[in-house]
Write a structure and sequence with these properties.
This protein has seven helices and five strands; from the N terminus they run βααβαβαααβαβ. With about 200 residues, the chain is an alpha/beta fold. Strands 3-2-4-1-5 form a five-stranded mixed β-sheet. α6 packs across α7. The radius of gyration is 16 Å and the shape is globular.
């Protein structure tokens, strides 16, 4: 399920997955490990910012991980909105992949088999060893969204959320009421803003 098929009934909301990280580039499970953006990731953040130039952003929310914050800062500079306030919170962090963090995905799949690999990586409720499931991620993302972000949207503010593949998947699951089975099909690309609202 590509992100373009999602139709969120929400005004003035922009979602942005951080630009490619060095571990994305190396095909590693990243999770909560605080890695840098790759050169491509920096370029993606700049390109995302250029797409935001015509949108006045009132508030940015991002995770506590530097790849999200760096993406936000680079994008805001490219959008000529460097003074936009940013709130960081671990509730928006990527899913914790536990013992898989740092491991090459191809090697993990070879060692444990395609079925187990798919469960750890894409299922809703299955946790990797020592890590979180997408359901666990959902349980921290959604209360934070409802308490801190939704009131701003309801007040007519334009909000940019810069986060991660799984924290954004968790948010879209709630907003669109995507089923536990179907959420495994949702793919969110790095560094490409997803606009919802009356002007886009």
């Amino acid at each position: 399920m590509p992100f373009s098929s999602i139709k969120v009934n929400m005004r003035r909301l922009i979602l942005l997955r951080h630009g490619q990280s060095t571990w994305n580039q190396e095909n590693r499970f990243t999770g909560w490990v605080d890695v840098d953006l790759s050169e491509q990731g920096v370029s993606e953040a700049i390109a995302a910012g250029k797409q935001l130039r015509d949108t006045q952003i009132d508030q940015v929310f991002c995770s506590n991980l530097k790849r999200a914050l760096d993406t936000a800062l680079i994008a805001l500079e490219a959008a000529a909105q460097e003074n936009c306030p940013i709130i960081q919170d671990a509730a928006l962090n990527e899913r914790n992949y536990g013992d898989l963090q740092g491991l090459n995905k191809t090697e993990v799949e070879k060692e444990y088999g395609a079925d187990q690999f798919r469960l750890w990586r894409r299922s809703y409720a299955t946790r990797p060893p020592g890590g979180e499931s997408l359901q666990d991620t959902y349980k921290r993302v959604i209360p934070y969204y409802k308490a801190s972000i939704e009131p701003l949207l309801n007040a007519g503010k334009t909000v940019l959320i810069v986060a991660h593949g799984n924290s954004l998947r968790a948010l879209l699951k709630e907003l669109e009421q995507i089923s536990d089975d179907k959420i495994s099909e949702l793919e969110i690309p790095t560094g490409r803003p997803i606009f919802y609202g009356e002007d886009k």
